[in-house]
Amino acid sequence: MTRRFLRLHLAARGASTFAVGLGVITLLAGAGGTWLASRTYFDGANARIPMIALAPLLAALLLGPTLSGADENLERSTSLPWRAWRAGHLLVATLVTAIALSLAGLREPDTYGAYALIRNALGCIGLVAGGAALLGVRLAWLPAFLYVCAVYAAAPRHTGGIVGVWAWPIQTSTSPAAWLTAIMIFAVGATTYLHRGSRA
Fold first, then answer.
1. DSSP labels, the chain
2. Which residue has the higher pLDDT, 4 or 67?
3. Which of 61, 79, 116, 194 can bridge 173 by disulfide, Cβ–Cβ 3.0-4.6 Å?
């Protein structure tokens, strides 16, 4: 029963589309990051900032539609422990996303590589999960998209201090403030989603 339900759950939420999309994003991020870092007219590994900002954002946007079934109200009316199912779904998807994206930055994981990709995946998924709970899955992408694009366009290209808090998507992996902010965003977004589910 549980195995059959799991298959139906994944099929209903488009897990196969998410998996294929995540694979494509990982391949493009790896190739793009390598190309950017190898250009002599760019600043070496620092040129991978677009990759560490964009790849986790796109992966989180792909995850958004999987956070709700065809009828959220119908799901809530069943006897199944939906908070547990939502928790499992979100945590497994986050783990898969973080592992996949980290493969794109393994060549130089410290400088805008694997570690920054994992951190940004946590933050972006937290924003999308919170967006699903507050706005519904159709608009779940909006907070993450607007925030990451605004930060990328406006933030200064230096690390440390208060900049690491609000500009966490473009900080190096050694910024404690950026890590703390991304983890807090994930925790708040995930908790909101687990308790409320996706807004119908």
1. -HHHHHHHHHHHTTHHHHHHHHHHHHHHHHHHHHHHHH-TTS-GGGGGHHHHHHHHHHHHHHHGGGGS-S-HHHHHTSSS-HHHHHHHHHHHHHHHHHHHHHHTT-SSSTTTSHHHHHHHHHHHHHHHHHHHHHH-GGGTHHHHHHHHHHHHHHS-S--STTHHHHTGGGS-TT-HHHHHHHHHHHHHHHHHHHHH-S--
2. 67
3. 116
pLDDT in tens, 46-82: 788 899 999 999 999 999 999 987 655 555 555 567 7
**Per-residue pLDDT tens digits for 87-105:** 999 999 999 999 999 998 8
Contact 104, 29 (CB under 8 A): yes
Give 4-8's long-range contacts (Cβ < 8 A, gap of 24+).
5/80
| Residues 198/72, Cβ–Cβ less than 8 Å | yes
Please say whether the beta carbons of 90 and 193 come within 8 A.
yes
| Contacts for 33 with CB less than 8 Å, ≥ 6 apart | 48, 51, 52, 104, 105, 107, 112, 113
User: Can you say how many angstroms the Cα of residue 30 is from the centroid of all Cα atoms in its chain?
Assistant: 16
Token output for 69: 């079934």
